[in-house]
Specification:
The protein is an alpha+beta fold. The chain contains three helices and six strands.
Length: 120
C-alpha cells in the first residue's frame, strides 16, 4: 500500500476520532483485524485483545459514546504503517493519553497496538 493511501486513511481516522464517529472508525479495519491494548489493567504479558472488525466496532461504539473530547496529536505515516498519539479529556477534567501503532494490509488496518494511561 502506498504511503499516500495510508496518509488518507490516517486523515479519515483523525476526523473520525475527533468527531466521535464509531462507524467510520470501524470501517477502517479489516474483517480479521486485531487490536491489542496495553494499560494498567492489561499489562504487556496479558494485553486486552479485540479480535475482528465486529468486536473493534463495539469497542469504538463504547469509546465514542462517552462524553469526552478526543484530539489526535502526533501522526507518523511510513508505507503501510501509521502511528499517532491521542489526548482525551472527560468533563470532570480526567485525562487519558494513548500512543497507537497500526499496520495496514489491502487498504485496511490489520493490526493495531494501543498503549494508554489515564488519570486515577
Amino acid at each position: 500500500m502506498s504511503a499516500q493511501k495510508t496518509r488518507a486513511s490516517m486523515e479519515t481516522m483523525r476526523m473520525a476520532i475527533e468527531g466521535g464517529d464509531a462507524k467510520t472508525l470501524a470501517a477502517l479495519y479489516a474483517d480479521n483485524a486485531v487490536m491489542r491494548i496495553i494499560d494498567r489493567t492489561n499489562p504487556p504479558s496479558q494485553p486486552r485483545l479485540i479480535d475482528g472488525k465486529k468486536a473493534i466496532a463495539a469497542f469504538y461504539e463504547d469509546v465514542c459514546g462517552r462524553k469526552m473530547i478526543h484530539h489526535v496529536e502526533d501522526v507518523l505515516v511510513d508505507g503501510d504503517r501509521l502511528a499517532f498519539t491521542e489526548a482525551c479529556e472527560y468533563p470532570d477534567g480526567s485525562r487519558v493519553y494513548c500512543a497507537a501503532l497500526a499496520e495496514m494490509a489491502d487498504g485496511r488496518i490489520s493490526r493495531q497496538t494501543n498503549i494508554q494511561a489515564w488519570d486515577e
